[in-house]
Amino acid sequence: MTFELVVAADASNGIGRDGALPWHLPGDLAHFRALTGRAREAGRRNAVVMGRRTWASLPPRFRPLPGRLNVVVTRDASFVAEGARVVHGLDEALAETAAEPDVEGVFVIGGGELYRAALAHAACGDVHLTRVDGDHGCDVFFPGLEPTHTLVERSGPRRDGDGPSYELQRWARRSPSRG
Ligand SMILES: NC(=O)c1ccc[n+]([C@@H]2O[C@H](COP(=O)([O-])OP(=O)(O)OC[C@H]3O[C@@H](n4cnc5c(N)ncnc54)[C@H](OP(=O)(O)O)[C@@H]3O)[C@@H](O)[C@H]2O)c1
Fold first, then answer.
1. Which range of residues forms the domain containing residue 63?
2. What is the distance between the alpha carbons of residues 69 and 138, in angstroms, rounded to a whole number?
3. Quick one: which atom of ligand 1 is closest to the CA of 139?
4. How far is the CA of 114 from the centre of ligand 1 (A)?
5. Which of 31, 62, 65, 75 maximizes ligand 1 atoms within 8 Å of its Cβ, making it the mutation to test the pocket?
6. What CATH number is attached to the domain comprising 76?
């Protein structure tokens, strides 16, 4: 089973600053909810897989992300995340989600370290990239797409209030056999 990846990155591939998102983009948050929040089939749900620091960056009132199986990846054997499943690697996260019959889609939602592992993984499928204009002085970065990813959809640019403009993109992974 493949998983998808959801990320918002600025022109320098920056994704975070001081343990948080450097921007507030309500339209992008709505896009994130539309992608991950509801499964297409009634009675099923999606899973979101995130690194331990991304879990920590969510305001406690939004943890776990509602309606989704939340999976937190850490190397800390004693880590506890209330309302979430704790695993110790990406493969274990994928095995956990595959073992849940009600899970429809699996989305890796960050941050930088987990994206690196995800992009290198054979089961990585579509990447939903929000390209945010400008350089936002980030201290965490998206590693960048593999040459096997190709842009298949884009919409924008759009802008929320006086925030930076951004474009919603979907990149699909070509099968390696087709080059
Ligand atoms: N713009 C966006 O779309 C977006 C999305 C998500 C997050 N962010 C931002 O990104 C930043 C956080 O990213 P980050 O790179 O610092 O941290 P991260 O990837 O969220 O979490 C890193 C931690 O997760 C665990 N981990 C990650 N990969 C692992 C693996 N392959 N196997 C086992 N454990 C693994 C480790 O936990 P332990 O240290 O506990 O072992 C590691 O220290 C924040 O600023 C956040 O706001 C941005």
1. 3-178
2. 29
3. 45
4. 5
5. 75
6. 3.40.430.10
Mind listing the pLDDT tens digit for each residue in 154-173? Answer: 998 999 999 999 999 999 99
SS3 assignment for the chain: CCEEEEEEEECCCEEEECCECCCCCHHHHHHHHHHHCCCCCCCCEEEEEEEHHHHHHCCHHHCCCCCCEEEEECCCCCCCCCCCEEECCHHHHHHHHHCCCCEEEEEECCCHHHHHHHHCCCCEEEEEEEEECCCCCCCEECCCCCCCEEEEEEEEEEECCCCCEEEEEEEEECCHHHC
* 15 Cα to the center of ligand 1, angstroms: 11
Ligand 1 pocket, 140 CB below 6 A? yes
pLDDT at 1: 84
Distance 50 CA to ligand 1 centre (A): 7
Interval between CA 1 and ligand 1 midpoint (Å): 23
Number of folded domains that form the chain: 1
